[in-house]
Amino acid sequence: GAVVSQHPSWVICKSGTSVKIECRSLDFQATTMFWYRQFPKQSLMLMATSNEGSKATYEQGVEKDKFLINHASLTLSTLTVTSAHPEDSSFYICSAKGLGLTYEQYFGPGTRLTVT
Amino acid sequence: KQEVTQIPAALSVPEGENLVLNCSFTDSAIYNLQWFRQDPGKGLTSLLLIQSSQREQTSGRLNASLDKSSGRSTLYIAASQPGDSATYLCAASGNTPLVFGKGTRLSVIA
Fold first, then answer.
1. Structural contact between residues A58 and A65, judged by C-beta atoms closer than 8 angstroms
2. A90-112 in b/e burial notation, b at 16+ Cβ within 10 A?
3. Tens digits of per-residue pLDDT, B63-88?
4. pLDDT confidence of residue A52
5. Are B37 and B88 in contact (CB under 8 A)?
6. A104 touches chain B (CB under 8 A)
7. Sequence-ordered alpha helix ranges (H) in B1-110
C-alpha cells in the first residue's frame, strides 16, 4: 500500500514553454502533498507544501508564479513549470501524506525535466 | 529550523565489509527519522523509518539507530555488496515536512 506515482517520468521541453507534472496517490487519500527538486549530486530541497483544496505554501526563494501547484483532489497534485528556462532543468519529486498514516511521507519515482 | 548533516559525504569500501553511515540533526523534536536509498537518476527507496519513541529498526542487513537526545542516527550495513552502491539519505520529520541531509555516496568494490 501507500503508492505514489508521477507522470511523466521524464520530459524535454523548449525554453519558454510550460510543462505540467502530475503526482497521484494510488491507494490512499493524500491530504498533504509535497514537491521537492533535486539538482545533480545534491539533496532534495522542499519547494512547496499543498493541502487539498487550499493554496500551496511555498518555501523561501521559490517563485509561486513560476511553479504553479494545484491540489484539487485527495489523490492528485500537479506542478506546472511556467515559462521554463534551462536553469529549471532538474529532478522533481513529489511525496504524499494521508490522514491516519503515521507522519510518513510516501515518495513518487520522480520526473526528470530537461529544458533546451 | 531543522538541519540534517550526513558524514561522510562519500565512502568506498571493499565487498564484505561492515560499514556505518552517520546522520545528525539539530532539532530533537522529531516525529521520526527515515533512511532512504537513491540510485543514480532514480527516485527514493525507503529503507527504514524509526519513530521518535524507538531506538532502532532492522531490515535484513540494515540496522538503523536513533538517539534523539544527542540528535544522531546511524545506518549500519552488514556484509556490504556491490549492489549496495548508491546514495543514502537520511531525513528528519517534525512539525515541518521531511528535511533531508545531503547524503552519503557509497561505493562497494567487488
1. no
2. bbbbbbbbbeebeebbbbbbbbb
3. 999 999 999 999 999 999 999 999 99
4. 82
5. yes
6. yes
7. none
| Chain B residue set in contact with A, beta carbons under 8 Å | 31-32, 34, 36, 41-44, 46, 49, 51, 89, 93, 97-103
Enumerate residues 6+ apart whose C-beta is below 8 A from B24: B4, B5, B6, B7, B71, B72, B73
* Contact list, B98 vs chain A (CB under 8 Å): 34, 46, 95, 105
Cell of B78: 552488514
- Of A83, A88, A82, the C-alpha closest to A115 is A88
CB atoms within 10 A of CB B6: 21
Answer yes or no: are the C-beta atoms of B7 and B103 closer than 8 Å: no
Per DSSP bridges, beta strands B104-109 and B56-59 are unpaired
Terminal CA-to-CA distance of chain A, rounded, Å?
37
Scanning every residue of chain B, which has its alpha carbon at the shortest distance from the alpha carbon of A50?
A: B97
pLDDT in tens, B28-67: 889 899 999 999 888 899 999 999 999 999 999 999 999 9
> Do the Cβ atoms of A43 and B93 come within 8 Å?
no
> For residues A40-76, b (16+ Cβ closer than 10 Å) or e, as one string?
eeebbbbbbbbebeeebebeeebeeeebbbebeebbb
Q: Between chains, do A44 and B100 touch, taking CB under 8 Å as contact?
A: yes
